[in-house]
Amino acid sequence: MIRFECDYAEGAHDAILKKLSETNFEQTPGYGVDPHCESARALIRTACKAEAADVHFLVGGTQANTVMIASILRPHQGAVCATTGHIAVHETGAIEATGHKVLTIPSDDGKISAEQIRAVHAGHWNDSTHEHMVQPGLVYISHPTENGTTYSKAELEAISAECRALGLPLVVDGARMGYGLAAPDNDLSLADFARLCDMFYIGGTKVGAFFGEAVVITNDALKKDFRYHIKQRGGMLAKGRLLGIQFETLFTDGLYESVSRHAVAQAMRIRKAFETKGIAFRHASMTNQQFPILPDGMKKALAEKYSFSHWEAYGDGHTVVRFCTSWATKEEHVEQLIRDIAVL
Amino acid sequence: MIRFECDYAEGAHDAILKKLSETNFEQTPGYGVDPHCESARALIRTACKAEAADVHFLVGGTQANTVMIASILRPHQGAVCATTGHIAVHETGAIEATGHKVLTIPSDDGKISAEQIRAVHAGHWNDSTHEHMVQPGLVYISHPTENGTTYSKAELEAISAECRALGLPLVVDGARMGYGLAAPDNDLSLADFARLCDMFYIGGTKVGAFFGEAVVITNDALKKDFRYHIKQRGGMLAKGRLLGIQFETLFTDGLYESVSRHAVAQAMRIRKAFETKGIAFRHASMTNQQFPILPDGMKKALAEKYSFSHWEAYGDGHTVVRFCTSWATKEEHVEQLIRDIAVL
Amino acid sequence: MIRFECDYAEGAHDAILKKLSETNFEQTPGYGVDPHCESARALIRTACKAEAADVHFLVGGTQANTVMIASILRPHQGAVCATTGHIAVHETGAIEATGHKVLTIPSDDGKISAEQIRAVHAGHWNDSTHEHMVQPGLVYISHPTENGTTYSKAELEAISAECRALGLPLVVDGARMGYGLAAPDNDLSLADFARLCDMFYIGGTKVGAFFGEAVVITNDALKKDFRYHIKQRGGMLAKGRLLGIQFETLFTDGLYESVSRHAVAQAMRIRKAFETKGIAFRHASMTNQQFPILPDGMKKALAEKYSFSHWEAYGDGHTVVRFCTSWATKEEHVEQLIRDIAVL
Amino acid sequence: MIRFECDYAEGAHDAILKKLSETNFEQTPGYGVDPHCESARALIRTACKAEAADVHFLVGGTQANTVMIASILRPHQGAVCATTGHIAVHETGAIEATGHKVLTIPSDDGKISAEQIRAVHAGHWNDSTHEHMVQPGLVYISHPTENGTTYSKAELEAISAECRALGLPLVVDGARMGYGLAAPDNDLSLADFARLCDMFYIGGTKVGAFFGEAVVITNDALKKDFRYHIKQRGGMLAKGRLLGIQFETLFTDGLYESVSRHAVAQAMRIRKAFETKGIAFRHASMTNQQFPILPDGMKKALAEKYSFSHWEAYGDGHTVVRFCTSWATKEEHVEQLIRDIAVL
User: Across A183-274, where does the E strand assignment appear?
Assistant: First the structure.
């Protein structure tokens, strides 16, 4: 069975394993204040062109989202996001567990627009009983989204401008950030995220690391006491240097970019193979997740040799499935898949 | 200005004021264990034909909903309810503040069906990553709903059967329970609610009392330690007898029923007056809230003399508004309104 | 049985009952924005010499404490208070239920000092792992304390200065505020509390009202969105005017002061009766709660005719009990008690 | 600088690094349902002689404590523990952040007794207003404690019997479990913990792993839906096999025991060196943490070459410090330290 079902099926990039091995018996302070974390912070600040940013390392995405959001909101506020947002659907109510409602905006492709944000905000304040409603307190978007789609620079700039006009911090879930930046149609950079958002994270778990997400805070007002929040939510790793070492490695010699490009290139090859067979796609994803709408026969045939995710039913005799590539995807696996698609 | 904007614009029924005055210098223990509370409990158990039920008195509806729901759910569970549900929209995230997500079901008239409940439940358990989703932990409905609509006995029996099959406690928000029971088309009784639900409350605030909601718990498994929850959520009134005295009065000599019938009768007269003028209604409400779709001219004219609520915009030159009657609505006010409608 | 067991055994002062009756059929908007609430706010601002203060009305003390504290703290912060503080002991973990630790300072008489506050603060910041500890976020004191003791102006000024130096808002639980202000040795005024604290409440439930606590916010930074917090925690009374009417009455013609003086005068008479018999007291209370240390025989004899609270065991054959007076205490009951003490 | 300041200064045991490397490109499902986790579960069940136990893997100790405790308690309940308990002092209020109070029992050495547990329980239920207090909902102990002390089998059996009599689940924080089991005076086994407790965890982070704590649930009533709690609290590692691989390695060929014995042997040598110099100890620890009471001169001299933790001030010219050994402590470092102690 060859796995295309997710982007976290393997361990970590060899360079990370090597570095972990080399540094194994160094003695460092715990909790993220060691030299490796400091070095990784410096590298990330440079990559983001944000020398004044605070950078924190957390183990996983749900944790990162929860800590970011709970650190920003007051009790009566909620996080505005797409109905498809990871925090709205697949984090077991982690945000609600910190006391906050997720205020959803309908979305099919996973994206939301500046106009929708303005409308949600207005809907709250125009209600004569606005004090009886949860107050929008921040906007959360994912880039790429859970459906593999991405924001253009123009779209992100519009969202950012709207959020600033409304006084709503903009938070970005970048669990697959690398794959977004590597998309063929991408016109955004980490520096753009640093410039346009208030807080975002750069995902490591799905992009070459064993685990780890780097939270970047550019809004000064949101920096205070962030480490308390990390600790309180169970996110402060005792051997914090493990996170520092991984991000140090990823942000040296362009590794984060190169592994991301590899994954997206493989995804584009798979996409093309399906397209050639006349298969349509559920979402216009130019990133590492592809959502072909497969006829049942093709789905069944492919499932004998490959694992992929069931995404959703799609009318008569068709199903949307997800094929995921990653930093670890082997070219020979992709080639085999392409050959099999071609002859089905 | 004559007020039809809500059903809590006046104080309390004279009988309650009288009883408060008569008992004012009685010395009783606090926190709801006094003779008046005990007497009110007995009267309510009898009215519900539920001699084994636990009865607790709380001050308001948001408090009652929060305490009921937080007492039932485990941390990873959520409350299933209509998108229009009071807990979903107009309680400032009180449920989320206790850590729980509100899992909404689309609804136009405010009601949900047994089929929808089954589908939400199935959607959770069929997801391969169900542990990444909030688990449905109870079902919350309002009767009458926020739109004035009501469940029939057949509908409530179907919901109850479904909930029991799925292991989901059924909780009913009865803030306007009296007005539901007094609806011309009603075929439900308090005893039906006691039989078909696990926990529900009988609203006093909107039905003749200064304040107060009586929570009735019929499911033995949900009775334990309920008073701790009341206290923790700030709902344990020091002079608890004030609640006992009010419900004692409301449940003596059929007062709760008679004031409810009065309110609904007035609402039906107003409904008929609009109907006679060819005005349509947004919701098929047979209870104390009426939602006529008014042309702007008529709306403006009525607003000069009467206060009523803006409900929602409704296409070209029309608005949905809400007229509310209550136990305190004066017949002469209704007659005046009817005359004014007739000539507009 | 004559009750001295608590200060909430009766209903409300006649003047309140009368005013409720007179205003019963007025139609007013709900949720605390009616003319009676506005009038009560103005009267309280004047009494506090704090024209810029925000004033909100809540139903009960646990609710008031919870809303005040949860509105101020960020998630990683806690409330510093005496081990005997009401929030630390007798509110069923209401503060913890909002996510915050109560950081206790040892206290025998119920009071804490500026020095202790400084030490708790220093203990936090001097810990090399301060981010692993709950950060002190505000100071909560009760006046009078749960043991009937009171702060002097010098003590409150020292606490206030320390809190301001440390950046910790000072919050005062004034559930029995009236009885503190009426103490023979009192040198504080409501204006002092307004000047020295950031947020405090003036208790109505125990001082003449059916229920109700008036929260006064003098620190501008803490005013924002307070009504959302009230609503979220279930504290926004639909018929808010009931609170307005009660405080309007209490703050007209010095009623709050006069009923408080009455209660304290009765308590002093009881105190003297015990003293005359050589009975010592557990706490140096000059307010409406008295804590004599009774020999078992006397305790048993008094218990036949009077109800009072068991407070704590006190060595060989003695018990600390609590006698409470209130605005409603009848002089003839006190005289009877005094006679009975004299002959025991 | 040679570090004795904590037991998480290095990476992981070579065997773990080797296994991570060997398995790096295996493709496995995420979230802890892979073959390595299954194998580790089986090994731990065997080590605990608890074939029916559920075993879950979490990344860190604060996370493990929070998930365990929040999964057990109802909202009005609290966790009983020593004043020195990690959850009471050094987890930034993580337990309170889930809504629960930590109910502390005074303790000097870090241990609590069956008698103290009974007394806390009785104190709650004997209070006439017990519903106004947080209800004890479970007992949390650490083994070894934060002060390095350990429970004897007799003590643990007494605590367990008391907890079962009172209906309180017993939860054990075993962050340093290995070092407790390796103590010279230990008479407990993992099987004893499985038999006597309801839920406990076996620490990996401080005992040879990069990170990881294995939660063992032996009480059937507490097993349900535990994975939801892990996910909600941000503790479900995407590449869960990393935890499985580490515990698989630690529980193969007695590695967990042997690295633990190494650490304790080194600690005993250091202890003896101090004893030989007439240095007293703050706590009677036979585990990897040692708390000598150092004269200021000796402290200063040692601090030039070694890092160790300041624990607490100790009267005139003395300080309690902590020396920690671990699985990674080098014998030559210990020998050097012993030589330096000898000549001071």
Answer: 199-203, 213-217
